[in-house]
Amino acid sequence: MQRAKEMMKVSDGSLLGDPGRTPLSKKQGAKWQRPRLTRQAVMRCCLVKWILSSAAPQGSDSSDSELELSMVRHQPEGLEQLQAQTKFTKMELQSLYRGFKNECPSGLVDEDTFKLIYAQFFPQGDATTYAHFLFNAFDADRNGAICFEDFVVGLSILLRGTVQEKLKWAFNLYDINKDGYITKEEMLAIMKSIYDMMGRHTYPLLREDAPLEHVERFFQKMDRNQDGVVTIDEFLETCQKDENIMNSMQLFENVI
Q1: Cβ pair 83, 149 in contact under 8 A
Q2: pTM given for the model
Q3: What pLDDT, on the 0 to 100 scale, is given for residue 76?
Q4: Cellular location of this protein (predicted)?
Q5: Could you tell me which residues come within 8 angstroms of residue 196 by beta carbon, excluding any fewer than 6 positions away?
Q6: CATH topology of 77-160 equal to that of 163-255?
Q7: DSSP, res 107
Q8: Structural domain boundaries of the chain?
Q9: How does DSSP assign 197-218, residue by residue?
């Protein structure tokens, strides 16, 4: 429940902020600095909390210190390769793997598991549709299951990747049919799923037409040639030039 309260306070229902708002740095006259994702922020990630709660020894309170797991014996195959592919340490990968195997003995996560995770962390709303979209973004080969390697590579991008890496991942999330373009309908579907997941208890309260307005503002800025779709180049260029979007990258962990 405390987790849900924190989410309500900090998220406006968007993965990329609001291009219509004045950036905080402009209001305060401060120079924008790329936000850093702290260990505490990583520990608030739904997927990380789900995995590590299972990895923690029975009877622990799942605090940061408990979750260091200094005597982890489980480790995935190709640990060195995963270290090279991700920005997780060997200890972190071992901890994630232990929890992953405890929760998913088969070594695979399916969509129903994602739905259960997000229903647990967002009890005030309906997370079913968002969990479906998020699962598809992780399921790179579209086979209906996510292995540990794909899982941690995705998490690494979302939690510790560069801004461009995160934006490319977000584009993939919005590009529902994976044809290389984002339509208004696709972006609206994602936005609505996030608003539905956050529920009606967000602060400030969100209007029913808020997702549509959000999408219209994004397309006005992103669809440079007015052809009705947004390409990856248009998406990256527009997002990286918008200070509010750049600042909001630190909020990725709020809905991941």
Answers
A1: no
A2: 0.73
A3: 62
A4: Cell membrane
A5: 125, 126, 127, 129, 130
A6: yes
A7: S
A8: 77-160, 163-255
A9: HHGGG-SSPPPTTHHHHHHHHH
